[in-house]
Predict the structure.
Amino acid sequence: MIPLNPNEKIVYQNAMIQVSNEVLSAQTCKERIQTEDSLTLVRVYTNPSVHIFPISENKKIWLIQEYRIDEDVTRWLIPGGGLESHQTPEQCAQAELQEELGKKAESFELFYELPYRKKVLNEHRYYFIARGLSDSHVENPDGNVVKDMKEFSIEELKKMTLSGAFNPSPTVFALLQLIGDVESGKVIL
């Protein structure tokens, strides 16, 4: 699933995550390890994911209000989901838009990519801007329930983000980046 470092060994894997151990010796580290001869690091890799900023005809961004079964909470989110091994990021983005928002896009622009890092918790995320939306609903196989959907202006999203309406995550960083790029004229909605 995930490319490993030469010293990493997979200790657990399923469709959503991969857990590995990496043994570091004093010879493989730039800094001397203050332990015996080696140190074992545990690394967790989540499945790659895709997140979409769908742009409406009104130059606003669609959000979905979704009940998350895994967290037992309802909140506003940008559409997105896990990238399956047979999909490209763009194919996944199209599928997630259809499942969660009931729309398909004419075009996707990769706005931001967060690649895997060599850390304890590793995520690979793709953020797309989707344009040319039209109705096209597909059943959502995730079990999460979309309760509402709404278009938000960039000003509304800025207020929501700064007030803590979104969980701290890489999506907040991507959203702030998008807000800044729209305000500076780098991105035109």
